[in-house]
Design a protein that fits this description.
38% helix, Aspartate Aminotransferase, domain 2, 2 domains, seven-stranded mixed beta sheet, globular, Aspartate Aminotransferase, domain 1, alpha/beta, four-stranded antiparallel beta sheet, 12 helices
C-alpha cells in the first residue's frame, strides 16, 4: 500500500525509534506542534506575557476547529477538557417542566455518566442506553429516547472498540422525540470528517490530545448558535462575559459564555499548530487512508489468530482495532519495552493508527502481539 502521507512522517520524531499506535489515547507529537509550544515558552522567557498575542492565538485556534467541524467561530468555546465541557452543559442545561430525562450510553467514556450522576436534579431521571457487544442499533435509540428526554449524549465512536455511530441518523431519531443531541467526538475529530450542520448536532465536544495531535489542557465545545442564549453557565468566569471587568456584565454571545478563567495558553498554541497540520492533510484524505489500514488490520489480525473486539468490517468502525488480552496492562508494558506504544483498556489492547502510520507497522505490532499471546 502506497503511503499517501509519507512526507509527514518526518514531522514525528518518535517514529524513528518507536512504533506509535496509540492515537486513541495520545497522538505522537509533531515538530510544528512542539515548535508552537516553544514559541509560547520562549516568548515568556524573552519578552514576558503578550496578552494580545495569546488571545489572538486562541481566536485562531477556535477558527480552525470551527473549520474542522463545519461550524462558525462564535459557536466554539475553549475549555480545559471534554469532562469540563460536559459538566458545564450539565450544570446549565435549561429544564422545561415536562422534560427531566437525560439519556447516555454504556459505550460513552465513563466520565460522561459520572458527571450526570453528580447532577442532583437529573440523577434520578437517567436512562442508560445499552449496547450489545459494544455496539448500539438505531432501533435502541428509538426505544429508549422518549418524549420525556431532554438531552441524549452519544459518542461518535466508542473509545474501547472503535464502533462508529451514524450520528446523522441518531440526530433524526432524538430530534423527533424533542431531545437535544450532545456528541462526544474525542475519538473521531481529526481523522474522520465531521460537519455539525449536515449531521444536525446540537452540542459537540472534542479534546486535542488524541487524533487532533495536540497536548492536554485544551478542548473545544460547539453549541448551535440558536441554543447558546438558552444556557446560563453556573461555572461563570470573566472570559465568558461580554464585559470581563464589570461585575454586572452579561454572558458573552455565542458559545464563549461557557469559558471561565484564563485558559492554558501553551496548549492552545499547540492546538492551533496541530489543527493547521490536520487541515492541510485534509480529514477526508486521512479517513480514506485509515479505512485501508483498518481493513488490513482486520484481515491480518484474523490471520494471526488475534481476537478482535468490535465491528467486523470497516463499514461502522474507525481504524481503532481492539485486541482481547486477559492481562492487557501487562502486555502494554511488555510491548513498550520493545518500543511499541499501544493503549490498554480493561481487557483489550487498542491499536490506534493515525495518518503518519503504515501498514507495515501494524503488521509488525500484530506479529509481536501474537508471539506474546502464544
Amino acid at each position: 500500500m502506497k503511503h499517501p502521507f509519507h512526507t509527514y512522517r518526518s514531522l514525528f520524531p518518535i517514529l524513528s525509534g518507536h512504533v506509535h499506535l496509540a492515537a486513541c489515547s495520545g497522538s505522537a507529537l509533531a515538530l510544528p506542534v512542539a515548535k508552537a509550544v516553544d514559541e509560547y515558552q520562549n516568548g515568556l522567557l524573552t519578552a514576558g506575557a503578550d496578552w494580545k498575542a495569546h488571545l489572538d492565538k486562541m481566536d485562531e485556534a477556535k477558527e480552525k476547529f470551527a473549520r474542522l467541524i463545519g461550524a462558525e467561530k462564535e459557536e466554539i468555546a475553549v475549555l480545559p477538557s471534554v469532562s469540563d465541557a460536559v459538566a458545564a452543559v450539565a450544570a446549565s442545561l435549561p429544564q422545561p417542566p415536562h422534560r427531566r430525562q437525560i439519556a447516555f450510553t454504556d459505550i460513552d467514556f465513563p466520565a460522561v455518566g459520572q458527571i450526570w450522576l453528580a447532577q442532583d436534579r437529573f440523577k434520578d431521571h437517567l436512562i442508560i442506553i445499552q449496547s450489545e457487544d459494544g455496539m448500539i442499533d438505531l432501533e435502541q435509540y428509538e426505544k429508549d429516547v422518549t418524549d420525556q428526554t431532554l438531552l441524549t449524549c452519544v459518542p461518535h465512536a466508542g473509545y474501547r472498540n472503535g464502533f462508529k455511530q451514524d450520528v446523522k441518523q441518531i440526530a433524526e431519531i432524538v430530534h423527533q422525540k424533542g431531545s437535544l443531541l450532545f456528541v462526544d467526538a474525542y475519538q473521531t475529530a481529526g481523522h474522520i470528517p465531521i460537519h455539525v450542520k449536515d449531521m444536525d448536532i446540537d452540542i459537540l465536544a472534542a479534546g486535542t490530545r488524541k487524533y487532533m495531535l495536540g497536548i492536554p489542557g485544551t478542548a473545544f465545545l460547539y453549541m448551535k448558535r440558536e441554543l447558546c442564549g438558552q444556557f446560563e453557565p453556573k461555572t461563570a468566569g470573566w472570559f465568558g462575559r461580554n464585559k470581563p471587568f464589570a461585575l454586572d456584565s452579561c454572558f458573552a454571545e455565542g458559545a464563549k459564555r461557557f469559558e471561565s478563567g484564563t485558559p492554558s495558553f501553551i496548549s492552545i498554541y499547540a492546538a492551533d499548530a496541530a489543527l493547521r497540520l490536520l487541515l492541510e492533510a485534509e480529514p477526508g484524505r486521512i479517513e480514506h487512508y485509515l479505512r485501508e489500514l483498518a481493513a488490513f488490520s482486520l484481515q491480518y489480525g484474523a490471520e494471526k489468530g488475534l481476537k478482535i473486539i468490535g465491528p467486523e468490517t470497516v463499514h461502522n468502525r474507525t481504524s481503532l482495532i481492539s485486541v482481547y488480552a486477559e492481562e492487557a496492562g501487562r502486555m502494554e508494558a511488555l510491548l513498550r519495552e520493545k518500543h511499541i506504544i499501544v493503549s490498554a483498556r480493561n481487557n483489550v489492547i487498542r491499536i490506534a493508527p493515525h495518518f503518519y502510520n503504515t501498514k507495515e507497522e501494524i503488521g509488525f505490532v500484530m506479529d509481536e502481539m501474537a508471539a506474546l499471546f502464544g
